[in-house]
Amino acid sequence: MTTATSRHSERRISPVFVGILAVTAVTGWATWTGFAEQPGVAVFLFVTAAWIVSLCLHEYAHARTALHSGDISVGAKGYLTLNPLKYTHALLSIVLPVIFVIMGGIGLPGGAVFIEHGRIRGRWKHSLISAAGPLTNVLFAVVCTAPFWLDALDGVPSDFRFALAFLALLQVTAALLNFLPVPGLDGYGVIEPWLSYNIRRQVEPFAPFGLLFVFALLWLPAVNGVFFDVIDSILKSLGISDVETYCGQELYRFWQGSNEFCSAAP
Question: Span of the secretion signal (predicted)?
Answer without folding.
Answer: none
